[in-house]
Design brief:
Elements: H1 7-16, E1 32-38, E2 50-52, H2 53-58, E3 60-71, E4 78-86, E5 97-102, E6 113-116, E7 122-125, E8 133-136, E9 144-147, E10 150-156, E11 168-174, E12 194-200, E13 207-213, E14 229-232, E15 235-237, E16 244-246, E17 248-255, E18 262-264, E19 290-298, E20 301-303, E21 308-317, E22 325-329, E23 341-343, E24 358-361, E25 364-368, E26 385-390, E27 398-402, E28 406-410, E29 418-423, E30 426-430, H3 485-496, H4 505-511, H5 524-534
Parallel strand pairs: 1-16, 2-17, 19-29, 20-30
Antiparallel strand pairs: 1-3, 3-12, 3-18, 4-11, 4-13, 4-14, 5-12, 6-7, 8-9, 10-11, 13-17, 14-15, 19-21, 21-26, 22-25, 22-28, 23-26, 24-25, 27-30, 28-29
Helix pairs in contact: 3-5
Length: 550
């Protein structure tokens, strides 16, 4: 089990980032800045920075504010930012002004928006689009945004370390060490790094409220590491070495009626900063650690022999548990249909906000669902996981009952509460006439991430590549003519114990797709490359390098 990081530990990481003290040589291409600007509301409308007296008298007013990165080169390796709210003529205390964060990739807009990004990825999505990433197709719940940088975002009541008693926001983002991410738009600030709702309570006193950066040194041991800092391979950039910081003024009671700021009935959510960090253990739960109201059931599906059927895994959550990490496992040998295989081509967990993704480690799928160190609510109306079951061509018709081999939940990132779910059976109806009445959303015969080969050269359909035996197909570890998660499983088994797993010579050549050496250089980078190619983060059709994975 992976270690889970608490909000306090992540906040400390946001404050100190990297400890090296490398001077930064500035130039035109190195110019970078962090700016706070008003952003679109949930209806996709521009929001004003002025709140009329009528609006604040009628109810709470929410001003979405985005943190934007301005840069001439996409080479930021880390981004750290912290800011608060001040007012010399109003009252910026928590009584009147609070923050609520929106994580990039989470649902934001009330209705799906048509989006086309600079890399050509496009879709119809309700996701909050970040400054670096792409639109990913999801057949179950529509399209969503996948960020190419990892981060921790916070919106707190205050911050002792930043010496502010008022609302406080921060983030710590880490991009690829090579700085090879791509902007979502044509320039870095076409989309925000993330968004914070600034909520002004009904009756907030008139005045000017400034969202201002907290520029200080969080760690006394590293006085050059300031709270707002960007690092590249060339060194660090702070307010002392060319990083520009642009604050935002919001006026209350000074604008005419009709301002685009909207009233709302938001309930202020507060976060208490935890001061201790505990990690989750790795012991297998006993029977007493099973939650009999947390129930996992595969949906009933229908498929023909030789077909791959997509199965939604449904969840009941009678105790309203939250999730810090989900663990799922299906062992092929335990499937009731001899020769059937189970993979998880669709890695998104729709039941948790933000589009968390499952990742394969060994033969088990892990999904970290912490959001800034906090466990998340589980939406039981959506699939908590999705497996693709491949039915062998010689499967006998009939109704087969099956269930997951394991579904384990880590409820909290602080006290390490862990439990196993109750596993119930679903049905796979294998029909015998070679046709299927399963709905398009439940069944798939090919996927966008699959490359198919036949023994003779034929015309390939969309999204498929046709090859002949012996042709190198990067990623096809098991030599079945397709590139999918099954190939990752085979490669990982071989990497874990090559002596006990006999991989074909052609499979070794195919698997050696990262810094290829015709099968002589197999390592974890090859496994990582195949995984990332399946979700369209890396193109391995002609091989790739280790730098492409960062």
């Amino acid at each position: 089990m992976k270690k889970l990081i608490s909000a306090a530990a992540s906040l400390a990481m946001a404050a100190s980032m990297v400890s090296s003290a490398v001077p930064f040589m500035t130039g035109a291409a190195d110019s970078k800045g962090l700016e706070l600007r008003t952003y679109l509301d949930a209806n996709g409308k521009e929001v004003s920075s002025e709140i009329s007296a009528d609006a604040i008298s009628a109810g709470d007013v929410t001003i979405p504010v985005g943190l934007f990165l301005t840069e001439g080169a996409n080479d930021s390796q880390t981004i750290s930012a912290q800011w608060t709210v001040k007012s010399s003529d109003g009252d910026a205390s928590n009584t009147y002004v609070t923050f609520k964060k929106h994580k990039v990739g989470s649902d934001y807009f009330k209705e799906a928006k048509d989006v086309t990004l600079a890399d050509g990825s496009k879709g119809k999505t309700t996701s909050l689009i970040g400054f670096a990433g792409k639109i990913v197709n999801d057949d179950e719940d529509g399209d969503y945004f996948s960020s190419s940088v990892a981060g921790q975002e916070f919106a707190l009541e205050n911050s002792t370390s930043a010496n502010t008693p008022n609302a406080f926001a921060s983030l710590a983002y880490t991009g690829p060490t090579s700085g090879s991410y791509k902007w979502s738009g044509s320039k870095s600030d076409d989309y925000p790094v993330y968004v914070v709702d600034v909520i002004f309570a009904k009756g907030t006193p008139a005045g000017t409220y400034t969202l201002d950066f907290c520029d200080y040194a969080p760690d006394a041991d590293y006085p050059d590491n300031l709270s707002n800092m960007i690092e590249t391979a060339g060194g660090k950039l702070t307010s002392k070495s060319g990083l520009t910081l642009k604050s935002l003024d919001i006026t209350v009671g000074g604008a005419s009626a009709g301002t685009t700021a909207t009233t709302s009935t938001n309930t202020t959510q507060t976060t208490t900063q935890t001061t201790t960090t505990q990690t989750v253990g790795t012991t297998t739960p006993s029977d007493s650690e099973i939650d009999d109201k947390f129930i996992i059931t595969p949906a009933d599906v229908e498929a023909a022999p030789g077909q791959t059927v997509r199965v939604a895994i449904n969840c009941e959550n009678g105790n309203n548990r939250k999730a810090g990490q989900l663990v799922a496992q299906v062992i092929d040998a335990n499937l009731p249909i001899k020769g059937a295989t189970a993979t998880m081509e669709k890695v998104k967990c729709s039941a948790v906000e933000g589009g968390c993704e499952y990742k394969l480690i060994g033969d088990t799928w892990y999904c970290d669902t912490l959001d800034s160190g906090e466990p998340q609510e589980i939406n039981t109306s959506k699939a908590i996981a999705t497996f693709d079951i491949t039915i062998p061509a010689d499967a006998e018709p009939g109704v087969y009952e099956w269930k997951l081999d394991r579904f384990h939940v880590v409820e909290s990132g602080y006290d390490g509460i862990e439990f196993d779910a109750v596993l119930k059976t679903g049905k796979i109806n294998v029909i015998g006439d070679g046709t299927s009445t399963a709905s398009e959303t439940d069944t798939t015969t090919t996927s966008e991430a699959t490359t198919t080969a036949t023994e003779t050269t034929t015309t390939a359909s969309a999204g498929q590549t046709t090859v002949t035996p012996g042709t190198k197909l990067y990623g096809d570890t098991n030599c079945d003519g397709k590139v999918n998660i099954a190939d990752v499983v085979v490669l990982n088994k071989y990497l874990n114990d090559a002596s006990s797993y006999d991989m074909k010579a052609q499979g070794k050549i195919n698997a050696d797709c990262c810094d290829a050496k015709d099968g002589e250089g197999l390592d974890a980078n090859d496994s990582d490359a195949i995984i990332k190619s399946i979700v369209h983060l890396v193109d391995i059709s002609n091989g790739c390098t280790a730098a492409d994975l960062k």
